[in-house]
Amino acid sequence: MEDYFSYTAELFNLDDANQKPEALKGIRVMDFSHVIFGPVAARLLGDYGAEVIKLELPFYGDLWRPATYWGKYWKHSNPIWHNITKNKYFLSVNLALKQSKELIYKMAETSDVVIENFAPGTADAWQIGYEKISKINPNIIFLSCSTYGQFGPMRYFPGWDLLAQGASGVLTLNGYPDTDVFYKLPDYVGDFVPGNFATLAVLMALYHRRKTGKGQYIDMAQTEGLMRTLFHYTYYSVTGEAIGRTGNTDPTMMPASIFKTADDKYLALACATSGQFQKFATAIGRPELATDQRFAETPDRLKPENAKVLTAIAADWVKTKSGEEIVRLADEAGFPAAEVADDFTIANDEWRRKRGSVVLFKDDVYGDLVIAGPSAQLSGTPSRTKWLARPLGYHNRVVLKKFLGLSEEEIKDLEKKKVIGTFDDRPGLKPPVYYNLDEDPIYNYGKEVRS
Amino acid sequence: MSSREEVYTRHGGKGGDRGKILAEMMNAEGKAEVLDDILVLDVSSANFAGIICASFLAEFGAEVVKIEPPEGDPARLITPFGVTVQGVGIPFMFEGRNKRYMTLDIKNSDEDRKTFAALAKKAAVVIESFAPGEMDSWGIGYRQLSQINPGLIYIALSAYGQYTDKAREAVRAPDADITSQAGSGLPAQMGAPEEDPEPFSWPLRGGMWAGWYISGLSAAVGGAVALIHRQNTGEGQMVDVAGMDAYSSMVGMPATIGFTWEKARPRIGVLDFILYPYGHWKCKDGFVAIAAPRDHDFRALLKILGLWEQEDDWRYSSDRIPDILEQALHLHRIIEEKTLQYTADELVRMALNYSRKSARSKWRGGGVPIVMKLMTPEEAMTNKQWHIRKAFQEVEDEKLGKYTISANFVKMSESPPRVKWVASEIGKDNDYIRKKYLSD
Lengths: 451, 440
What we know:
The structure holds 2 protein chains of 2 kinds. Chain A is an alpha/beta fold. Chain A is built from 18 helices and 12 strands. Chain A has helices spanning 4-11, 37-47, 81-84, 98-109, 122-125, 130-136, 161-168, 189-212, 222-227, 232-239, 274-283, 298-302, 304-319, 323-333, 343-348, 350-355, 396-403, 408-416, and strands at residues 28-31, 51-56, 88-92, 113-116, 141-146, 216-221, 256-260, 266-270, 337-339, 358-363, 367-372, 377-378. In chain A, the strands form 3 sheets. A 6-stranded parallel β-sheet of chain A has the order 3-2-1-4-5-6, with helices on both faces. Chain A has a 3-stranded antiparallel β-sheet with strand order 7-8-9, with helices on one face. Chain A has a two-stranded antiparallel sheet with strand order 10-11. In chain A, helix 2 crosses helix 8. Chain A starts with a helix and ends in a 35-residue tail after the last helix. The mean pLDDT of chain A is 96. Chain B is an alpha/beta fold. Helices cover 38% and strands 15% of the residues of chain B. Chain B has a 6-stranded parallel β-sheet with strand order 5-2-1-6-7-8, sandwiched between helices. Chain B has a 3-stranded antiparallel β-sheet with strand order 9-10-11. In chain B, helix 3 links the parallel strand 1 and strand 2 (63-68). The relative contact order of chain B is 0.12. Classes of the chains: A alpha/beta, B alpha/beta. The interface between A and B is large, with 182 and 197 residues. Strand 6 of chain A pairs antiparallel with strand 14 (411-412) of chain B.
C-alpha cells in the first residue's frame, strides 16, 4: 500500500487546488456589511466559490479600509484588510439615493444571500432589510449580524468585538488569578469567531434551501457566538463557583501551561490524558511520577494542590532545555508541546507555506503579499484566493455591465448623478501610487483601454 | 420603546413591533432540522475540537454517534480542576448535545473496526483525531472508507495536519488547546509589555479554549461546505484541520503583519494596535469597557469625561495609536484618572445621555462613545437580553441531573440549531445504533 503521507500529499496537492471544483459556484451574495464581523462571513463564502458583491458608500467606503495596525499602510492599502475581504467585487453605491436602491433591488432578484451588519433596524429603515428584499426574492437567505441580536431590550446598543467580549464574560478570563490584570482576546477574535458561526448558519440555510426551496432570515449576535464557546456557565451552574482567571495554566489538563525555556523561549506543554502524562514523566526522567498517587489519575492530577506541585516540576524541567529540544522530545514521546509562535515565525515557517495555511499570493494589482490560508483544508473543493482587496468602486463596471446588463451610457449617467462613485485620495481607499487604473481592463470593463 | 432603546435608534423605524415579530419568527419549536437526513460518526479521542465540531452538526439535526472505547473517551476527564459529575467532566457535559453513545474499541479490535466500517458506509461524516495515518493503518482511514462510500466526508483533526513533511515528522504530536493557541499565535499578542515584571510580561494563554473551539468551528464550516458539494454532486472529500493553524488562519493578521512589517508585534498590554480608545478601564467600583475609536466618538468621550483640553494633542486616530508605547500609555493614564472618579453605572449613564443628544444634533458630529460595565461569565447569565433570546438553556441529563448550557447560538427562521437533549452515558445507544444501522 502506498505510504500514507504520499497519498495525502497527492490528495491535497496545492498545485492542483485551483483546478478543482468550487462548492459554492453559482451562489451570488450581496454584502452590505462593514468592518470585520459581516465581511468575514461573506469572504468565507467567496473563498469557496460564491460571487460576493460588496457594497460601499462612494468616497467613504468601509470604515475598516484605513484601519491598519499602528497606521502602517502597504502600497497605500491596509495590509490586514486583504485577509478580511478578498475575493469580492467592490461596488460603490450611494445608498441614500432612490436610484441606488433600484440597482440593489434588481440585483436582489438574482441573489441567493444578503449579509448586513448595520445597527439592528437600520437596514429595514433604509428599505434594504429582510422585509423588503424577501418581497422581491422570497427564497433569499438574509443574514443580519449584530452585537446583541435583532430582538431583546439591548438590540439597539451599538457594539464592537470588544463589547461582545465584555458582554459574554470572556474578556475577564484572560489574565492572572488574585489580581486585576487581564486583557481582551487579541486581533478581534470577537468578530472572526462569530463571523465563522454566521457562515456556518448561511451554509446550513443553503443546504436547507436546496432541500425545500425555502430561504430564511438569520439573526447572528456576536455575543451569542462567543457564549457558545464558554463551558464556564455550566461549571458555575454545577458547582456554584466561577472558574475565573488561571493565568497561563489551563485548569482542564495537567500539566498545561506556558513556560520559559533555557534559551528564553516561551513554550506551551500539556498532558491531556494519563497516557500522555506517562510519556511526559518518562521523557523528563521522572517515571515514578506516573505511579505517584497524586498524579497517576487525571482527576487527582487536576486537583489544585497537586496541580501546583506538578506545574512547578514541569517549569523546572523546561528551564533546563531549549525550546527546540523539548518540542523534539515531546513529538517523539507523544505529548503536546509547542513554542509560542509570533507574527514573524508564522509568516516565515516553511511548513505553513507548504501546507497552504500561509500563502504568498501574487496579485495583479498589489504584487506579492503573504496572507493566511484557510483554517480547514478541503481535498475536493478547496478554499482559494483569486484576488486581494481592491480600491473603492473598482468593480463598478464589471458588476453593472456583466451582472446587471447596464450600458456604458447608463453607467456614465449614474456617475454623473453620483449614484455610483469611487475613492478619494485616502490610503486604504485608493490604488497604489504606481498603479495606472486607466490601463486596467477590469476597472474599465467594457471600455477601450489604452495600453 | 424605552428611553434606553431610543438612545441608539437613529432611524424612524417602528422599533417595538419589529422586536416582537422577530422573537416570534425565531422560535425554534416545530421547525425543520436541516441535517436530519445524515449520520455523523465522531471517533475523536482526547480531543475536544472533534467533539465540538460534532456538536454543531448535532445541533443542526444530524444523528451524531459518539464512538468510544468501553472505558470511555479520555476527553471525559478533561475538566476544570478535575471537577466531574459521576465521572463526567464539565466540558463533556457542556458538549453532550443531541448525541448517541456507542462503544467500539477500534484501536484494538478487528471486529470493532469492521463494525465501524459498516457504519461508515452509511454515514455522511466521520470525525477523527488520531495520529495522522493511524486510522489508515487500521484499514479504516479515508483512503479505505472512500472506496466503500464515495460520498463520505472525512474530517481529521491533528496538530500539524495530514500532509507535508512536517506532518510526517511530528506525526506523534497530539493536539491540545494550549499548544494550539501557542503554535498558532494567540498568546504572542496578549500580555503586559516587555518592561513589566515577569510573568506578566510573558505571552498569555486565552482564558477559554480558543484553540479547540476555533479548530472545531473551522472543521464544522469546512464540513458544511463539503456537505453542500455532496448535496450537489454526491461526492465526498477529506477535511483537514491542524491545531497549529487554528488561530492564525482564522484571524489572518499574524501572517500578513509578519510579512509586511518583517518583525513580530510586541505585547502592548491593554492597548490595541488599530483602535483607541478600545479596551477596559478601572473605575470606582470595577471595570468598564470603552469603545470610542472613531475621531468623533473620541471627541465625544473627551467631552463626557471633562477632558476637552486634550483634544488638540490626540485629535486623529494616528495620534492615539502610536508605535511609541510611552505616548499611548500617557493618554491611557489621562483617561484612567477620570474613569476612577466614577462608578461603572455613572459612566454608562454619562455616555448614554451624550449619545441621546448627539443622535438628535448634527452639530455634535454624531459621536457614539460606547461604555459598558464589564461582566464575568456568571454575571452574563443574569442578563435579561439572553433570557429573552433563549441563549441559556437549562437541560437535564437522566443520570447527571440539571445544569445550564449556552445554546441557540444563531437564530434562524426556518432551520435553526437547537439542543433537544443532553446525554453522556457510555454505550447508552449501542442497541439503538446496531438495530437502526447494522441489522441488514
